[in-house]
Write a structure and sequence with these properties.
It comes from Liquidambar formosana (Formosan gum). With 531 residues, this protein is mainly beta. Helix content is 9%, strand content 21%.
């Protein structure tokens, strides 16, 4: 009797387990049926990408499907990325139990992420990025212990940033950015032993950045900024991430000083900390980042001078320090940086002269030093190499001539040097440069006549020359230039005898080319707006 009871109990226990497993794992469909279910859930296939998915052919030949011939032709990869598909992802995807790679990126798929994906126990790569998936992160996906890549970038996911992803021990790449996740970055995010890429940027996160982030010693890329609103500053433990190559903590309300520990990141090539509330001096240890190529610390409240340690940044191509509270001279070594392409220091309180070596490396593309208190002359070789596209020195105390070399700078697109004390003549050929769209030289002490030119650039849309001491007449070609209209609005310094009686740019050309009598302060009333 006792044996019978024992056997009965064992039978009941078995039935309970069997029922539980059956509920957790619904009957598995044949793989071709599961694929057809996925197709049925697609409501729009504008490129007919799934037209080959029909029972008349083997599912292993269907577009986007990869089978493993060594494993009874089981489906091991499904790639439907970039097909502009609409609809939902069928829960029957969970029947593809041998999948290693599931990618449906760059479509218009919506609805919740099917928790049945958790049934694909060997899945290594899951990319659902650039869709419209919504709802919260399915906790059951934490069962994917073999998963190495999880990419949910740019969807409409909500709820707290999922702590359960920390239970996926083999993750190498985790992208949760571009969603509507809220809450804090959990300290459990410091658990991963192999993680190389972590992005939580572009969400609605708050709280402090946990120091446990510093435990991710294999991390190479870290993105935590944009639309997040953290409290406090950059944790000193960030200095433990010695494999880090890219660090982006821009636009997320960080405060405090830049920690000196950041100087330990010897492999770092990109540092973006712009649009925060960082204060204090420029950390001298930033100069130890000898691999650094791009550094953007703009739009903060940093103060003091550019430290001499920055002279060691020999690989720097981009340096943005604009909109801070920096002062002192721009160090001469800035002009000697061999790789520098972009230098933006505008809206600070820099004084002294512009480093005369700027541009001699032949690589300078963008230089903006506007709204400072700089004096002295312009560097002579800013367009060496013919790569300079944008030159802005607006609103300083610069004097001396405009370098003649700028009249031969065929790469030049914009030149804004108004509100200084520049003198001498406008370089010959400047207005004929083929890429030129904007010239602002107003409010200087320029003299002489309009420079000789065979033609005015067809791209030139604005010329501002007002409040100078220019004389003579304008060339006939100015009347056929698109800049004709903008020449009106910028109050040219060229005088006129009388307004033309007829409309049109040709009349305007005759009007502004007249003999010197008085300054022009308004356009001719009859001028055609299409000029």
């Amino acid at each position: 009797m006792t044996k019978m009871r024992l056997l009965l109990l064992l039978l009941l226990h078995y039935l309970h387990i069997h029922r539980t497993l059956s509920a957790a794992a619904p009957p598995r469909l044949p793989e071709y049926r599961a694929l057809l279910s996925i197709k049925t859930a697609i409501t729009d296939d504008p490129q007919s990408s799934l037209a080959t998915w029909n029972v008349s052919t083997s599912h292993c030949t269907w577009a986007g499907v990869t089978c493993d011939p060594a494993r009874r032709r089981h489906v091991i990869a499904l790639d439907l990325s970039g097909l502009n598909l609409s609809g939902v992802l069928s829960s029957d995807v969970g029947s593809l139990r041998f999948l290693l790679n599931l990618t449906v990126a760059a479509n218009q798929l919506s609805g919740p992420i099917p928790p049945e994906i958790s049934l694909i126990s060997g899945l290594r790569h899951l990319n659902l990025s650039n869709n419209v998936f919504n709802s919260t992160f399915p906790p059951l996906l934490s069962r994917l212990k073999s998963l190495q890549v999880l990419d949910l970038y740019n969807n409409n996911m909500t709820g707290d940033l999922p702590v359960v992803v920390s239970e996926m021990p083999n993750l190498r790449h985790l992208h949760l950015g571009g969603n509507f996740f809220s809450g804090k970055i959990p300290p459990e995010f410091g658990r991963w032993e192999f993680l190389e890429y972590l992005a939580v940027s572009g969400n609605e996160l708050v709280g402090v950045i946990p120091p446990e982030i510093g435990n991710l010693t294999k991390l190479q890329q870290l993105y935590v900024g944009y639309y997040n609103s953290y409290e406090g500053g950059i944790p000193a433990e960030i200095g433990n991430l010695t494999e880090l190559v890219r660090l982006d903590m821009a636009n997320c309300l960080l405060s405090g000083e830049i920690p000196p520990e950041i100087g330990k990141l010897q492999k770092l090539d990109t540092l973006f900390l712009q649009v925060n509330a960082l204060s204090g001096p420029l950390t001298p240890q930033l100069g130890d980042l000898k691999s650094l190529k791009s550094m953007d610390l703009s739009n903060n409240m940093l103060s003091g001078e550019i430290p001499p340690e920055f002279a060691k940044l020999g690989n720097l191509t981009l340096l943005n320090l604009f909109r801070n509270k920096l002062h002192g001279a721009i160090p001469e070594f800035i002009g000697d940086m061999p790789e520098l392409e972009v230098l933006q220091l505008w809206e600070n309180n820099f004084t002294g002269i512009i480093p005369q070596g700027l541009g001699k490396n032949g690589k300078l593309q963008l230089l903006d030093l506007s709204s400072n208190k700089l004096t002295g002359t312009l560097p002579p070789n800013m367009c060496s190499g013919n790569n300079l596209q944008t030159l802005i020195t607006l609103g300083n105390f610069l004097f001396g001539p405009i370098p003649e070399s700028l009249g031969r700078c065929e790469s030049l697109n914009r030149i804004r040097m108004g509100e200084n004390f520049l003198n001498g003549s406008i370089p010959k050929g400047l207005f004929g440069l083929p890429m030129l769209t904007q010239v602002e030289l107003q409010d200087n002490d320029l003299t002489g006549e309009f420079p000789e030119t065979d033609s005015i650039s067809v791209n030139l849309g604005q010329i501002s020359l007002s409040n100078n001491k220019l004389t003579g007449s304008l060339p006939p070609t100015i009347g056929t230039s698109p800049a004709c209209r903008s020449f009106f609005s910028t109050e040219t310094s060229f005088p006129a005898k009388s307004h033309p009686k007829s409309a049109g740019c040709s009349s305007y050309r005759r009007w502004i080319s007249a003999t010197i009598i008085s300054r022009v302060r308004s356009p001719p009333r009859s001028a055609n707006a299409s000029c």
